[in-house]
Design a protein that fits this description.
Layout (H helix, E strand, L loop, with lengths): L1 H9 L5 E10 L2 E7 L4 E7 L1 H4 L4 E7 L2 E6 L3 H10 L11 E5 L7 H8 L5 E8 H7 L3 H15 L6 E7 L2 H10 L3 E4 L13 H9 L4 H8 L3 E3 L4 E3 L2 H26 L6 E5 L9 H13 L6 E3 L16 H18 L3 E4 L9 H7 L4 E5 L1 H14 L1 H18 L30 H9 L1 H6 L10 H10 L1 H18 L9
Parallel strand pairs: 6-7, 6-15, 7-8, 8-9, 9-12, 12-13, 13-14, 14-15
Antiparallel strand pairs: 1-2, 2-3, 3-5, 4-5, 10-11
Helix pairs in contact: 4-6, 4-19, 7-10, 10-11, 11-12, 14-15, 14-16, 14-19
The structure holds ligand LHC4WPEC.
The site of the ligand O=C(O)[C@@H](O)[C@@H](O)[C@H](O)C(=O)CO has 14 residues, from α5, β8 and β15.
Amino acid sequence: MKLLEEFLKAFPGRFKVYGSSLRIITDSYFFLGNDGKEKLLFVVGKKGICQLFDGQKIGQIGSNDVLMCKKTHENLLALRKIINLNPTTINKKASFGFGDRIGLATPAHAKVAKDFEVFPIFAQQSVRELSRTGRTYKDVLDDAVWGVFESGYNFEFGADADHVKEIEDLEKASNEGFTMYTVDPSDHIKDVSKLSQKEFQSLYQDNKIRRELEMRYVGKLYKFKDFEFRMTDEEFAEIFVTYIDAIEHVCKCYDVLKAKGKPFDFEVSIDETAVPTTPLAHIFIVKELRRRGIDFKTLALRFSGEWQKGIDYIGDMEMFRKEIITHSKISKELGGYKLSLHSGSDKFSVYPIFSEATEGEFHVKTAGTNYLEAIRVVAVKDPELYREIHKFALTKFEQDRKSYHVTTDLSKIPDVDKMKNEELVKLLDMPDSRQLIHITYGSVLTAKDENGRWLFKERILKVLQENEDLHYDFVEKHMRKHLSLLGLERRIEK
Ligand SMILES: O=C(O)[C@@H](O)[C@@H](O)[C@H](O)C(=O)CO
């Protein structure tokens, strides 16, 4: 800290510094500051170090140059060569995805992660999120890494290219150094309830590997400690037709990543499908993937009930308990992978059951709930802007809900023009208005006026930058609640 005091003395009144970001490497030091307009990277060191960065020399402290640098990708790459800020693969029993759609929340996420026995995935965005917000994998990783740097977080973290459907997106994420890939083969999953008998039979009978797999699975008894399953002809045919193309697609994706020769965590997500995953389907998918050499680390199943974005679980809790216990026992006995819970934001009533059933070995993904905390700051600090966003969101909801499963009832949302400023924040606690804001993030963050100027994005960022501590507090409090209910508090001295 003496170093930062020296810096502040050398440049009185010009900058705010982020003390947590300070890293000292031999006789050079690096930290983030703010000149009142933007965050900046400061490098204080000898010429040899400073010349690795693109910045402006603003003075000298002792024999060291002081370089002020923009937070560019190139400067971050230079910093990553000196300080280990690189994402890695998961090395803990429990892992948790802190998806951040705006890119400013990682310092708060990192503050939370430090206090829990969890492997954090700070960079996590789905292809759907990227296309809606106009961000790239590079943006997502850079934002997360700058956030890790700012927070002083010194432990490992990962980067998840979430819900990837096309091979070219895997390539892009891999080129940026992502460490986890969530392949979503839902476009290849057949909803057999929608097939005619003829269609079903032709998909089944005409498939070349059907006979071989029939021999493997039909009539076979799968014995677990507490239960057993035998696959009938009909069950096999239904599971085969439902999942076989998806399994083949997953294999193609895996081979592409494997060929890169870099370590990675591979997740298969079949959560965004119409039909809940049966125990037999779970067994079939795992056995087939394994047989084909796919080393997947996490598997996201579709559980029964409603797993809607941004709100708690809707459904029969007892049924979920039984389901998760069965799936968890299957996964433990088949071994080598964890269950992953998607749409994990705000599923507070489910977490203790999920954590207990999986014996603390799981992955959970959250994302939109962090965006909602950012908009909560807007509702508190700039009520007029909130009203504008809210009214705009109402016009975009029908279009934006298409790739999200929600049962939002817009008629239950109070009229924002009739609410007092201080009441607006309550909308961020009501299920229907939460989903309205949650689902329309892309439209809001990319909306432009007729002159091509951002309608909301810059104003949202400004509110968040001017109220950074409040933003971090909101996100931190909310995420602590998630991790506490998942039973991840550290039991050892920090
Ligand atoms: O909105 C998205 O596309 C993603 O954030 C999610 O589907 C993600 O996989 C998730 O489940 C976060 O709760």
